[in-house]
Amino acid sequence: MVTDVRTEITDRVAVLTLSNPERRNAMNLELSAKLVDALRSAAADDAVGAVVITGEDPAFCAGGDLSELATADPETLRTVYSGFLAVADFPLPTIAAVNGAAVGAGLNLALACDLRLAGPRARFDARFLPLGLHPGGGYTWMAHRVLGAQGAAALTLFGEVVDAAEAERIGLVHRVTEDVVTAAVELAGRAAAAPRNLVRTTKATLRLTAGMATQAEAVEVEVRAQAESVRSPEFAERLAELQSRISGSGR
Fold first, then answer.
1. What is the rounded distance in angstroms from the CA atom of residue 196 to the CA atom of residue 142?
2. How far is residue 3's CA from residue 19's CA, in Å, rounded to a whole number?
3. Tens digits of per-residue pLDDT, 34-53?
4. What are φ and ψ of residue 210, in 5° steps?
5. Would you say the C-alpha torsion 158, 59, 14, 189 has a positive or negative sign?
6. Residues 94, 98, 100: CA angle, nearest 5 degrees
7. Which residues make beta-bridge pairs with 186?
8. Model pTM?
9. What is the Cα–Cα distance from 2 to 143, expressed in whole angstroms?
10. Are the CB atoms for 97 and 179 separated by under 8 Å?
């Protein structure tokens, strides 16, 4: 079976599908490298405004390749983790369309995205400690930010496995939907429809202001970026269209 990351672009949304069918899309060195390459290509393509990441059915990503992990040194682990970091650092909006099991490394991959949607068969399982394995790939940092201290402890230390409905209840996913890839593409399309540079800047601002202590600090960051956007041709064009519609509706 071929290990691959397939890319399909629809309405400015690149859908990246992990495909390692013999191992239920387990993350190994080859798949991680191909994910990095696919993301690099998407970032360089002006026809792409957002990215959806999913797995070949029936799994999202069933963890790391244990045969590789068994002999991994720190440098090998960093290479495996490069896929997660490429997602986390991706400059455009990302959505995880979790269509099945997201275990260990698969949970990392979902957490690295800006937003997660779950299909009815989604299942989230950290499973590091039961394997005698310390969490990696930035999992502890991501889990704490998304779930808070108690939620992160429940999944990580106490081994709770959550289904789609419970994942929505605890805030691990934004929404549960029957056709998760279609829903993710539709949602991503809203971001992709906005000016690409503006989306990139806004995503960067969200991350920057998340670490600030006061609203006043955030205002200082936003005011410069907003003033620049006001002078952009995209804003002028869209403002003119809006004003034209408003004038037309008043007749």
1. 26
2. 6
3. 999 999 999 999 999 999 99
4. -60, -25
5. negative
6. 160
7. none
8. 0.95
9. 31
10. no
Question: What's the chain's length in residues?
Answer: 251
The position carrying tokens 């629809």 is 10
Mean pLDDT of 7-11: 96
Question: Given the structure tokens 């999992």, which residue do they identify?
Answer: 139
Q: How many CA atoms lie within 13 A of 144 on its CB side?
A: 7
Residue pair 85/50 in contact by the 8 Å Cβ criterion = no
Q: Is the dihedral of CA 146, 135, 98, 153 positive or negative?
A: negative
> Using CA of residue 152, residue 15, residue 55, residue 3, what is the dihedral sign?
negative
Provide CB contacts within 8 A for 33, sequence distance 6+.
79, 82, 83
Helices (H), 72-177: 74-88, 105-112, 139-156, 164-169
The greatest distance separating any two alpha carbons of the chain, rounded to the nearest whole angstrom, comes to 73
Question: Which structure tokens are listed for 22?
Answer: 């013999």
Crossing angle for the helix pair 74-88 and 29-44, nearest 10 degrees? 30
159-168 b/e (C-beta count within 10 Å ≥ 16 → b): eeebebebbb
Q: What gap in Å lies between CA 7 and CA 18, rounded to an integer?
A: 9
The string of DSSP codes covering 189-238 is HHHHTS-HHHHHHHHHHHHHHHT-S-HHHHHHHHHHHHHHHHTSHHHHHH
